[in-house]
Automatic annotation (TrEMBL):
Organism, as annotated: Agromyces neolithicus
Keyword Oxidoreductase among record annotations: yes
Domain Aldehyde dehydrogenase: 3-369
Keyword S-adenosyl-L-methionine applies: no
PANTHER family registered for this protein in UniProt: ALDEHYDE DEHYDROGENASE-RELATED, SUCCINATE-SEMIALDEHYDE DEHYDROGENASE, MITOCHONDRIAL
Keyword list, A-Z: Oxidoreductase
Region (Disordered) location: 463-495
Alphabetized InterPro entries for the sequence: Ald_DH/histidinol_DH, Ald_DH_C, Ald_DH_N, Aldehyde_DH_dom, Aldehyde_DH_Superfamily, ALDH_KGSADH
Protein name in the entry: Aldehyde dehydrogenase (NADP(+))
Length: 495
């Protein structure tokens, strides 16, 4: 139980640790991230046993998620170790600068300060206590408070113990990392003036409430919420004919982890006349899977009833929801079919995200009409996918343009479930996919927790280490020497 006084102390500790942590050299902070990764790997079996009990997710799924979690920490360590992420720029003083005399100006990226991260329910490792948001904030040099998800409290506490011990063993300042529990405590901290950025993975409703709170503070802060996404998939006639396993792959993507993935394909568009007979057979092969917790189970049950009860909907695989012990729900896949007209007329019932193993197949008549339809129905998503052939290139080019406008990641073939943690990954998109169109996966995620600071005509001894001429951290420095501006506009090379 955290009282108001304890909340104040937690925020004060984070603020006190922020400056000390920001001053740590990138190589030392990178070593600390590796220490956290090693600690998680060493305790993997223990952590996975707890996660199975609290979430109902399978051991193979959780084993893969632990590998992802520890290795993304190592990836962030690689991303920061040389200090290039600081984007150091040094413009030397230049009396003859063509725009007018230029002072000595030095710019770098600096940590924003204490970050509050709201952990996710559906990824108890990769988007939770030591997940991607935490890795990005720590890599940036920000002190971090994680609000644990109520769906896996024991796992959250044990993981936090490992993180705190690993950071201490690596010589990081005290209170760089703290864990709190309880919705109201998270809200109270979000409104504390010492918190300088927030991140969240969860529902559109809760994410929007938190984002509004962050924006309404006397001093507003950036809030990076990953909210809802239905991730539409489009298949051309040629692709349907060419890909024998298209429908089986679709069902597998919809049902993986009981459909409790933010990248699950919520809609598949196929041409009129496409044979959908394989859907029922593929769905019948999928065994029931426990949903994460009773609240999510009840919400999915209600959502499924709404979709199945909508006018014009045909069930290709009816699926089922069984209520077990402790009010837990166990589900099998539900896949329904509609036409474009039905989808438009009953958008209130059909377009909302179904967080669970449910998806909608939509029959369309004209591929040329899909770009307008997509912009109308799906203004913001994490992903959009196109299954087509080389012969379709000209016909689908306008659709690809529409997908890129409204989605963070555009896939050509394959399925959107499974997000590779890479330097080039984009896991974010226009609202309502996210509150702020950034990425929460991959090393670009660190940019959310950095801000630019420039120093003009500063004495060397008062400059941060990365901006000094002697460069004690040995970070890359991009310098603009005096006298270069006279040559602006002269292009070199043969043409």
């Amino acid at each position: 139980m955290h009282t108001e006084t304890e909340i104040d102390l937690i925020a004060a500790r984070a603020a006190a640790a922020a400056g000390l942590f920001a001053d740590t050299a990138p190589k030392d902070r990178a070593a600390a991230l590796v220490a956290v990764a090693d600690g998680i790997d060493a305790a993997a079996d223990e952590l996975i046993d707890i996660a199975i009990r609290e979430t109902g997710l399978t051991r193979p799924r959780l084993q893969g998620e632990v590998r992802r979690t520890s290795n993304q920490l190592r990836l962030f360590a690689e991303a920061i170790v040389d200090g290039a992420y600081l984007d150091v720029r040094i413009d030397e003083a230049d009396a003859d600068y063509v725009i007018g005399p230029r002072p000595d100006v030095r710019r770098m990226l600096a940590p924003v300060g204490p970050v509050l991260n709201f952990a996710a329910s559906n990824f108890p490792f990769a988007f939770s206590v030591a997940g991607g948001d935490s890795a990005a904030a720590l890599a940036a040099g920000c002190s971090l408070i994680v609000k644990a998800h109520s769906g896996h409290p024991e796992l959250s506490r044990r993981t936090a113990d490992i993180v705190i011990a690993a950071l201490a063993s690596a010589g990081m300042p005290d209170n760089v990392f703290q864990l709190v529990e309880g919705q109201q405590r998270g809200v109270d901290l979000l409104q504390d003036d010492r918190i300088r950025a927030g991140s969240f993975t969860g529902s559109t409703h809760v994410g929007r409430l938190l984002a509004d709170l962050a924006a309404a503070r006397p001093r507003p802060i950036p809030f990076y919420g990953e909210l809802g996404s239905v991730n539409p998939v489009y298949a051309t006639s040629a692709a349907v004919e060419a890909e024998d396993d298209l429908l089986a792959g679709f069902v597998a993507s919809v049902s993986g982890s009981a459909g409790q993935l933010c990248t699950k394909p919520g809609f598949l568009f196929v041409p009129e006349g496409a044979d959908l007979g394989a859907v029922g057979g593929s769905a019948a092969l999928v065994g029931e899977h426990r949903l994460l917790n009773p609240g999510i189970g009840r919400a999915f049950e209600q959502r499924r009833d709404t979709v199945l009860g909508a006018v014009g909907v045909t069930a290709l695989a009816a699926g089922a929801v069984r209520v077990g012990d402790d009010d837990q729900r166990f589900a099998t896949p539900t896949v329904v079919e509609v036409d474009v007209e039905t989808l438009r007329e009953h958008r209130d019932e059909l377009l909302e995200e179904s967080f669970g193993p449910l998806s909608v197949i939509v029959r369309y008549s004209d591929v040329a009409a899909l770009p307008e339809l997509h912009r109308e129905l799906f203004p913001g998503n994490l992903t959009a996918t196109l299954h087509s052939t080389d012969a379709d290139a000209d016909a689908v080019a306008p659709l690809v343009e529409a997908l890129a406008e409204t989605s963070g990641r555009v896939l050509f073939g394959g399925w959107p479930t499974g997000v590779s943690v890479t330097s080039a990954m984009q896991h974010g998109g226009p609202f309502p996919a996210t509150t702020t169109d950034a990425t929460s996966v991959g090393t670009a995620a660190i940019a959310r927790f950095l801000r630019g600071v420039a120093y003009q005509s500063a004495p060397q001894q008062l400059l941060p280490m990365p901006l000094r001429d002697d460069n004690p951290w040995g970070v890359p420095q991009r310098r603009s020497s005096a006298g270069k501006s006279a040559g602006w506009g002269s292009l070199t090379g043969e043409h």
